[in-house]
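Example record for the data management plan.
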Amino acid sequence: MGNRRISLLKRIYRLLDNVTPIDGDCGNLCGARCCKGGDHDGMWLLPDEDLLLKDADFLTIHETLEGKYAICNGHCDRKLRPIACRIFPYFPMLFRTRNGSHSVKPMPDLRALAACALFDTNAPQINPEFKQAVHRAGMLMMQDRCLRGWLGRTGDYIFDIGQMRQMLEA
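Corresponding structural encoding:
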């Protein structure tokens, strides 16, 4: 763990502090489904992010072989939300550019399709400012080797979910 990573995570928090997927509270569309769940539902944490959330008494942090994740009690201090909550229902997907470097593109997080009302056909449009902030957050993550690895592994996991969905729908 390094102070540089913590500083980078704090920058990502600030970047995503005041931007939301739509104008207004999208939780009003679905009864805040993304903030409710059981003891096994949670948001994955980025490497060392748990250190920033140690004072968040509305979260319980669990550790698995895949990493750490936080479970919310349903009512949060928005300034202490994990990054996964701040970018929901999008994810900054890592991809290789034509010249061989890496970049990110904000994409709908396929894990959110069943829960998020913003993917319904009559849902409001996602704010372009939100997508841009998710992009910038992903670009900041790429500056740290561990965060970049997390981004790649999580993106691969989301991609695999999409592949499974296609196979099941065929």
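Summary line stored alongside the record: DSSP finds five helices and five strands in the chain.
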